[in-house]
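@channel sequence for tomorrow's demo:
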Amino acid sequence: MKALVTGATSGIGKSIARKLKARGWELILTGRNEEALASLKKELGDGVETIAADLADRKQIFRVYSFCTDKGVDMLVNNAGYGIFGRFDETSLDDELDMIEVNIVAVHILTKLFLRDFKKQNRGIILNVASSAGFLTGPLLSSYYASKNYVVRLSLAIAEELRRVGSDVSITVLCPGPVDTNFNNRAGVTFSVKPISADEAAEYALRRAFARKLIAIPGIGVRAGVFASRFAPHKLLSAITYEIQKSKLGDSK
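structure tokens (generated this afternoon):
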């Protein structure tokens, strides 16, 4: 069995790569940092290939797919992604567009291309890493929350299409709450609640994916919060989310 893991050099992606290798999987790993990829390949040993790529560049997204062609990929893990913190009118447009390319466009392209391959062979697993943010509106992280909403809704729609045709291809969307990764450092904020570890998130995601479960939300509290959000008014949820995000910077506005 072979898996492609994007964003494999840190956080959840790195943990997923390690856990898949421990389960006997061969791996194709991609990320921007060539040195980090080489280090992880050395750590994991035989049966690991790497391809350095910046998924904010659409040409490189297709290059990653081409690299995987005819290599017998059985599982796609769309993990690469990041967030940008700040008021929407103040954040960098160029940075946001790059984030949208990674969080949405790369996920969309790779999911579509591998889904076509998986359906032809009537087997395969897609694991899309989203966030509990994918069920909410996120003031001060507006583009990030919106991007994860896209990943969640796309995954749910694909799952229903697969169910309707009786396909043995499965799709799982991981929607964790705070996870102890480099996300907040890149976004320029700090956690306001205690995060779970990347290993916890990765293990839960893989267990759910191998069990062919559609949604993976680690943590009873986070699952309860996502469920409760269905019944709260959107304006109230937005106000609560704003206060949570604001507290990360101690912003009084």
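heads up for whoever presents: The chain has one domain: 2-247.
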